[in-house]
Each structure stands twice: as C-alpha cells, then as structure tokens.
Design goal:
373 residues; alpha/beta; 7-stranded parallel beta sheet
C-alpha cells in the first residue's frame, strides 16, 4: 500500500515525497483512514512504529483550509505529550508533513523562557503541541483557550502515568469541547490507562501494532560479558571500529553519562551527554548536533529511551543495563525503526547477568555472546 492509496491530499503527499517517505508503516496504514473518517481511535503502539505520522497526517489534512483574512487562528488540535523532547519532535513532524499546507503549529513546554511561546500563541495557531505542566499554567493565565478544539491527541499515555501526569490530564479533560475527535496512543495498557481511555473515548476503533517483543526483530543484538573497569576501553575500541556510524550510548545514571563523555572526549572521540540535569537548551543543542551529524556519539540516560526519533540511527550501545527488561526494548528501539535494520550491543558485568536473562525471557530471543572477559 502507498500513501496515495490512503487518500492523502496532494500537499501532504508532496511533503512525504520530499522526505522520501513512500510506504506507510502498519500503524499508519490502519490509523490514517480511521482518523480521516472522524472516529475516535485507541492505538497500542511502541515508539518507532511511525505513530506520530499516523495522527499528524490526518490532522493536517482535516485542518488544511485557507484562513480568512483578518480572522484569528484558534487552536483546533491539541497534542498532549509527556516530555519536552517528544513535544519538539512532534512539532518537527508537523513542520515536515505540513510544509505545503496552510497550517500554523506551535509547541510549548516547561524548563525554558515562556515569552517566545506566549508570543507564538498570541499570533494564533491551528495546532498546539504541549506538555501538561506548561499547558495548564498558560490556560490558567488566559493565554490559551481550548474552546475551539476539534482534535485531541493523547500520546504516550502510559508514560504520562509513569511521570505522574494523570491528575493533570483529568484536570484538562473538562476544559475540552464534548464534541471532538480523540486519538489515544499508548505502548502498554495498565489498568489505570485502560480506565482513562474509557472515560475520554467515544466508541473508538482499537488497533494494536508491534507488541513489545516484535520491536526487536529487525535489530541484531549482541552481548559482551565484561567487568565494569574494562567497559570504557571496550567502548573506545568499538567506536574506533565503527567510525562512520552514529551511535547512541546508554548509561544508567547522569553521573555515569558525564563520566563516559569525559573519557571519550579525552580520547579524541567527540561526543555529548544528555540527561535530566542538563538545561533544556543544552539537551536540544546536543540532539540537534547529533541529528545533523556534527556529533557522532551521544551518551544518554533513560530520559532518551522513549520517544526520541533519530533517523537512520545504526547502533545503540547499552554501557549499563537498565533496571527493567522493558526499558531495554525501548532503548534498542531507537535503532531499527520504520523497517530499517539496526544493531544493539550490550555490556554486561557479573552483577547485571540476571537482567540479561530477564531480557531474553521478555523478547523470546537469545542475545549473541561476542566476548566473555
């Protein structure tokens, strides 16, 4: 199937061709016709399956109408997402797919100066992408009205639960018009999320794409059994061998990420670290440098394990194993996205071996042992 067969309009098709997107992913194939029909949707899909386009494309198509002169643009679509990084990425998707559409989109999130965001809102916007805290703050201060919302998208609902945002969502819901379309996406369905979906969706179409284990099918996974003192030398050796590749390295802690970055930079391997103690500006600069190829290696804590969309990322290295097997799947899912293949290398010390067993049990796949030290 092609995007054209999904009845995508010409301006969006042109933008997709420019980005070399030709074939929809399974979630896009299923979700776009439902969203275009106006029905509510409950999508269970991992990151990396293409769900941002699955809601952005139909929203752009439904809102792409010439704006009458002198008429203020009111917010007609609200995308609520848990993290700043994800909000920025979704905004970039609206920019890419809506390049030839008559549509204005704005992103707001906390941790940065609010004045430029307020300025964008005052100029009027059709689509608002927001994190919960900044959204509720600007609503309370009368900078935002939700009276004209036609489309409400709740993305990464289970992550919202993990981060304690469910109360904020419940505060927000009564402010939305009752007559609206709601698109609800979550990677998993814990009981609290299933209950929330029932309160906000009206007769939804349910679709489930890529259960947790299948996300790793396109990724070659290897494990190095190596003790902690030897991990940094192994990492340097591997990065020197993989000189042409973009590499995302995961550390369990913020301190660890900074330490790895210092060691690599001292050895002439240019890299940057991103984690929760970095300012939003520093994190965004590091991601921009990495996506553009200016920086080849980025060291991240699990703040980057969900939602980061880095095109053509070939290699993920787990310097430390995470605390949960599910987090491993989210981490390595940064590569092998949208049908591409990828490689994930894992460093495992003696005290981490139990986690390797848990990962193999969850994914149903054995990690290939490359080195035992």
């Amino acid at each position: 199937m092609t995007f054209k067969e999904l009845n995508i309009s010409e301006p969006i098709l042109k933008a997709l061709v420019n980005k070399k997107y030709e074939t929809p992913t399974p979630i896009q194939e299923q979700a776009i016709p439902v969203a275009l029909s106006g029905r509510d949707l409950l999508g269970i899909a991992q990151t990396g399956t293409g769900k941002t386009a699955a809601f952005a494309i139909p929203v752009i198509q439904k809102l792409n109408q010439p704006q009458p002169k002198g008429q203020r643009r009111e917010i007609k679509a609200l995308v609520l997402t848990p993290t700043r990084e994800l909000a920025i990425q979704i905004d970039e998707c609206f920019r890419d797919y809506g390049r030839y559409a008559d549509l204005r989109h704005t992103v707001i999130f906390g941790g940065v100066n609010e004045k430029p965001q307020i300025g964008d809102l005052e100029r009027g916007t059709d689509v608002l992408i927001a994190t919960p805290g900044r959204l509720l703050d600007l609503i309370a201060r009368k900078y935002i009205s939700l009276d004209h919302i036609r489309h409400f998208i709740l993305d990464e609902a289970d992550r919202m639960l993990d981060m304690g945002f469910i109360h904020d969502i419940k505060r927000l819901l009564p402010m939305l018009p009752k007559r609206r379309q709601t698109l609800f996406f979550s990677a998993t369905m814990p009981s609290a999320i299933a209950g929330l979906s029932k309160t906000i969706l009206h007769n939804p179409v349910r679709m489930e794409v890529a259960p947790v284990a299948s996300v790793v099918d396109t990724i070659e996974q290897q494990v190095y059994f190596v003790e902690k003192p030897q991990k940094s030398e192994l990492l340097i050796s591997l990065l020197q061998k993989e000189q042409g590749k973009s590499v995302l390295v995961f550390s369990r802690t913020k301190h660890g990420a900074d330490k790895i970055a210092r060691v690599l930079n001292k050895r002439g391997i240019g890299c940057e670290a991103i984690h929760g103690n970095k300012t939003q500006g520093a994190r965004q600069r590091a991601l921009t440098n990495f996506k553009s190829g200016k920086t080849r290696v980025i060291i991240a804590t699990d703040i980057a394990a969900r939602g980061l969309d880095i095109a053509n990322l070939e290699l993920v290295i787990n310097y430390d194993l995470p605390d949960m097997a599910e987090t491993y799947v989210h981490r390595i899912g940064r590569t092998g996205r949208a049908g591409n293949s990828g490689t994930a290398l894992t460093f495992c010390s003696a005290d981490e071996r139990t986690m390797v067993k848990d990962i193999q049990k969850l994914t149903g796949q054995k990690l290939n042992t490359v080195l035992t030290a």
